[in-house]
């Protein structure tokens, strides 16, 4: 039993059956899962959700599966952190971090979309799953496929970070490195899906995959005490998660689970790959594809599949966009780590750096509630932080050496205040 009605074209509204499909036959508009919200009323409630598992599957009534979940049984339900120390540094009143850097099992938001897409692929009877990935998606597909006993083949650009390569290969997928950038890989994947009849999660299973991203938004609302933040800052790569957080907020409003406080959505991109933000800032409905050049590789998509809808949602909500340079991204990674104890990858650094710009420019008022989506983990991209801190000197194993060291300025991410020995304080 499910509340799924159809796959519906976002442009002409034509309905299709629940099948592997990406676009509408008549106008090539993307298709999206349509649900029967009327039928949900009275059945999908705060109580029914709260009674569900401590995972993203607590929202299964709002996800496009028919049977039991088959993947990601422990994915989602990541912390929503009240970031008081960071808020104090930025001079804002109410700041939250939605922390998908600790998503299970592969430490990025992608575990949400893969949980749903892999379950759907198994419902459809596919024997092989794959993806076009900038890294995190390949990790997630490979790990979930390993756990489910399904064959996986992941397609990636040739120049991914060394750590990201290990982080996917270890799960035993077939890894295919392709000369070209993400957009080249993605194009090839459409052909592979057709010819090999594989479930490419972000290509021919894309409508199911993208619904999984809603759970990030559902969790923000539920964890905030069934309330929506007034401002939500979200990274934009292919353009999946931002419109889906919005869809999640709107679904909760439709079902009467939260009040409509007219939430605003803000897109964050790296300066070296900011087609969507550029369009938003220039007041254009359409973006111009770019060739990415940034350390934020997991969000370096120059021709985002759903970029058009990001622009639409941001404008409709009354939000805006910002982009961050590589040094600003690094600074934001350090700031988040030093104030909140959260180590994110450059995608998260980008989002926080952009949030700061939006706050400092007055686009986001300092006295309203703000949520920043942190979508990936810094331990996966240690390379980008290498050389950021001076080497720590080695001392002798003697108390006098330690005493001397305590009086030296030490390299690190925060100023060290020389502490008096306890005896001196007494
Ligand atoms: C994929 C990804 C995103 C966002 O991607 P969308 O395609 O826009 O949903 C953000 N952060 C990280 C770390 C990612 O891996
Ligand atoms: Zn159509």
- CATH topology of the domain at 80-106 and 213-385, by name, is Rossmann fold
Distance between the termini: 69 Å
The helix/strand order is EEEHHEHEHEHEHEHEHHEHEHHEHHEHH
Mean pLDDT: 95
The CATH architecture designation of the domain at 80-106 and 213-385 is: 3-Layer(aba) Sandwich
Low-confidence stretches: none
Radius of gyration: 22 Å
Q: What count of helical segments does DSSP give?
A: 16
Global morphology = globular
Task: Find the count of extended strands (DSSP E, 2+ residues).
Answer: 13
Label the structural class.
alpha/beta
Quickly name the level 1 CATH class of the domain at 80-106 and 213-385.
Answer: Alpha Beta
| Amount of helix | 25-40%
Query: Strand portion, in percent?
Result: 5-15%
Order of strands, main sheet, comes to 4-5-13-10-11-12
Largest sheet: 6 strands, mixed
Ligands present:
pyridoxal-5'-phosphate, zinc ion
Write the SSE topology:
Blueprint: E1 4-9, E2 15-16, E3 31-35, H1 37-40, H2 46-50, E4 80-82, H3 84-90, E5 94-99, H4 110-124, E6 128-132, H5 136-148, E7 151-157, H6 162-169, E8 174-178, H7 182-196, E9 199-200, H8 206-212, H9 214-223, E10 231-235, H10 241-254, E11 264-270, H11 275-282, H12 307-317, E12 321-324, H13 326-340, H14 346-360, E13 369-374, H15 399-406, H16 422-425
Parallel strand pairs: 5-13, 6-7, 6-9, 7-8, 10-11, 10-13, 11-12
Antiparallel strand pairs: 1-2, 1-3, 4-5
Helix pairs in contact: 3-13, 4-5, 4-8, 5-6, 9-10, 11-12, 13-14
The chain binds pyridoxal-5'-phosphate and zinc ion.
């Amino acid at each position: 039993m499910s509340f799924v009605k159809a796959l519906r074209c976002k442009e002409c509204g034509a309905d299709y059956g629940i099948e592997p499909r990406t676009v509408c036959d008549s106008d090539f508009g993307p298709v999206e899962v349509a649900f029967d919200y009327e039928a949900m009323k009275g059945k999908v409630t705060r109580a029914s959700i709260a009674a569900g598992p401590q995972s993203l599957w607590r929202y299964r009534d709002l996800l496009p599966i028919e049977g039991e979940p088959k993947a990601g049984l422990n994915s989602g339900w990541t912390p929503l952190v009240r970031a008081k120390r960071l808020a104090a540094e930025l001079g804002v009143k109410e700041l939250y971090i939605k922390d998908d850097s600790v998503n299970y099992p592969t430490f990025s938001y992608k575990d949400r979309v893969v949980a749903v897409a892999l379950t759907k692929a198994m419902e459809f009877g596919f024997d092989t799953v794959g993806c076009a990935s900038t890294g995190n998606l390949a990790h997630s597909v490979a790990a979930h496929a390993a756990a489910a006993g399904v064959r996986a083949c992941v397609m990636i650009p040739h120049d991914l970070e060394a750590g990201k390569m290990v982080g996917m290969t270890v799960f035993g997928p077939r890894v295919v490195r392709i000369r070209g950038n993400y957009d080249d890989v993605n194009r090839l994947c459409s052909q592979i899906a057709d010819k090999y009849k594989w479930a490419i999660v972000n290509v021919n299973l894309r409508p199911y995959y993208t619904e999984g991203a809603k759970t990030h938004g559902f969790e923000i609302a539920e964890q905030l005490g069934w309330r929506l933040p007034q401002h939500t800052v979200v990274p934009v790569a292919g353009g999946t998660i931002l419109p889906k957080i919005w869809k999640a907020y709107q679904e909760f409003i439709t079902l009467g689970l939260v009040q409509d406080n007219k939430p605003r959505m803000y897109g964050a991109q790296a300066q070296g790959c900011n087609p969507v933000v550029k369009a938003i800032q220039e007041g254009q409905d359409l973006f111009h594809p770019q060739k990415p050049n940034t350390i934020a590789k997991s969000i370096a998509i120059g021709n985002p599949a759903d970029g058009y809808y990001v622009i639409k949602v941001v404008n409709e909500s009354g939000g805006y966009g910002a982009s961050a340079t590589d040094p600003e991204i690094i600074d934001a990674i350090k700031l988040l780590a030093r104030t909140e104890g959260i180590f994110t990858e450059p995608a998260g650094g980008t989002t926080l750096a952009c949030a700061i710009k939006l706050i400092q420019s007055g686009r986001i008022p300092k006295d309203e509630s703000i949520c920043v989506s942190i979508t990936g983990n810094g331990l996966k991209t240690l390379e980008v932080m290498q050389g950021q801190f001076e080497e720590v000197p080695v001392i002798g194993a003697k108390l006098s050496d330690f005493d001397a060291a305590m009086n030296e300025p030490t390299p690190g991410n925060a100023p060290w205040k020389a502490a008096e020995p306890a005896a001196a304080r007494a």
